[in-house]
Design goal:
Length: 515
């Protein structure tokens, strides 16, 4: 069993206070463990992987570091607040580098759009593509700011587990037309289809269909503009490593290669966990950072559920799957000078492609790609003169009828992705390819216990958000709490870190725990 900082973990045995077990060392689980440790809990984090971070971990091949999941940090103040809650300063631990531009969007007709935090630069980008949409874009920014203050700073940072919490916000939802989709709201403000895409694609990065997810998520435009987009030197995996060490410094234990098989109960109260090897670990409270669907269907498989039954989970709409190709290139550091840190490469279709992914469950011949080239900012990701790339394509999850057989399509699809990159972004790529790795929905299912191999758990549609989402304090048992992408407020780094903040508001203070 791999341990992080053995000396500090041994010191954890000397810490008194009620015991909290955290299942999963993803970013949400680690943030929850940090907050619980700061409150005075004796914390044990357990994860089946060999390194912390969950989807935010990394692998190394031939000198190339491949960050497996999140690639950027937004809303850095929520990380500063997390560190401050633990008596620390973020900047003493993490080197965040601002990105400018945030990303570049490209279309098949050769047009481009650079996103940045400078409003006037953004206005000029809009003017260049569609002069008649400048006024509408300014209105969109106002809409985005209003939804940021309500949707993120208010709803996103407090619990929504009581029905009265939902009822209280319904008038604001109605006034802000939360029933509209993100795309529909963008379409009301701008006419150019390229701009509609540029203003509405963000839900895809938290697992949502822009044509069905609530327009509250247009808040991301303000969030990016106001707080910037950053890259953590060393990758998000470095953030996870640091967070795990802070848990240890607080007197907690981080046990890797330790698989939780089942949550234990005494009557209506969670009392600990049973590991895959049969060991039972008792706890005063249990926090699951495993996917909410996995928590209720597998970790509580022997316990009747009141709300999150298997049929209800089966009826839920899940986020899309991801095909991610990680590869290194040899001798390319000075090649492709027009390709920056982040590029979004659009295919010929937007709505049709999204419908194939989310509704039809069809693997289309065309695709849109997110291309991450971290070596532009962080040379340590690759040997001198080389590059490291991460290319992501949204694809259907495994739960659709006649789903994709990735055992046969894996290499076929990789070649299609390579061809798109060769012809549209990285000419000569094939001659420079080095080490590579691929994750399909099959690997997301096996590596992360993700239901249907999804990338982002339950899709954040309006009737699967806030009160309708699995609650941070479980409806199924006392002493059981949830954190991470599958609970409130949702997926993405800001979402899972905020879920830990919500958790800290709900758990009892250690002095009130009946031991």
């Amino acid at each position: 069993m791999t341990r992080i900082d053995t000396t500090l973990i041994e010191a954890a045995r000397l810490k008194t206070g009620p015991h909290a077990v955290v299942i999963g060392a993803g970013l949400g689980g680690l943030a929850s463990a940090m907050r619980l440790g700061a409150m005075g809990y004796r914390v044990t984090v357990m994860d089946r992987l060999d390194v912390p971070g969950g989807r935010g971990s990394a692998i190394w091949k031939e000198g190339h570091r491949f960050d497996l999941g999140p690639t950027i940090v937004t809303v850095p103040q929520i990380f500063r607040e997390l560190w401050a809650a633990c008596g620390r300063k973020l900047e003493d631990y993490i080197d965040l580098r601002p990105l400018d531009p945030f990303y570049e969007i490209r279309w098949p007709d050769g047009s481009k759009f650079e996103a940045s935090g400078d409003t006037e630069r953004m206005v000029e980008e809009v003017r260049r593509l569609s002069p008649g949409d400048v006024a509408g874009y300014r209105k969109f920014l106002q809409d985005s700011e209003a939804r940021y203050w309500f949707g993120f700073e208010d709803l996103g940072r407090r619990s929504m587990h009581r029905l009265r919490d939902l009822i209280a916000v319904l008038p604001t939802f109605a006034r802000m037309r939360a029933d509209r989709s993100v795309y529909a709201h963008a379409a009301r403000r701008v006419r150019d289809e390229r701009l509609r895409m540029a203003l509405s694609f963000h839900p895809l990065f938290i697992g949502g269909d822009p044509f069905n997810v609530t327009s509250m998520y247009i808040l991301v435009s303000h969030l990016e503009k106001e707080f910037g987009v950053y890259y953590a030197m060393g990758g998000v995996a470095e953030m996870a490593r640091v967070m795990a060490n802070i848990v240890s410094e607080q007197g907690g234990a981080v046990r890797m290669e330790t698989e939780v098989d089942e949550i234990l109960f005494d009557g209506d109260c969670a009392t600990g966990v049973r590991l895959a090897d049969g060991e039972e670990i008792r706890a005063d409270l249990v926090v699951s950072n495993a996917d909410a669907g996995w928590t209720y269907s597998k970790l509580m498989r022997n316990r009747p559920k009141k709300r999150w039954t298997d049929p209800k989970l089966d009826r839920s709409r899940w986020s899309m799957g991801l095909f991610v190709w990680y590869f290194g290139t040899k001798g390319t550091r000075d090649m492709w000078p027009d390709v920056g840190h982040h590029t979004i490469l659009n295919g010929p279709r937007y709505k049709g492609l999204v419908k194939d992914i989310f509704i039809n469950g069809k693997l289309s011949d065309d695709m849109s790609l997110y291309v991450h080239r971290p070596s532009v900012t962080d040379p340590s990701v690759a040997p001198d003169g080389d590059d490291t790339f991460y290319v992501l394509s949204p694809v259907p999850h495994l739960g659709h009828d006649n789903g994709v057989d990735w055992t046969t399509q894996r290499e076929v699809y990789r070649k299609k992705v390579e061809q798109v990159l060769e012809t549209q972004l990285l000419p000569g790529l094939a001659k420079h390819l080095g080490p590579e790795e691929i994750l399909t929905p099959l690997e997301f299912k096996s590596r992360y216990n993700a239901p249907h191999g999804t990338g982002f758990s339950i899709e954040p549609r309006i009737l699967q958000s806030a009160w309708f989402r699995p609650h941070n304090v479980s409806e199924e048992a006392d002493g059981l709490f949830l954190t991470g992408a599958g609970t409130h407020p949702g997926a993405g780094l800001p979402g899972v870190i905020s879920s830990a903040e919500v958790l800290a508001q709900l758990v009892p203070v250690p002095s009130e725990v009946d031991r």
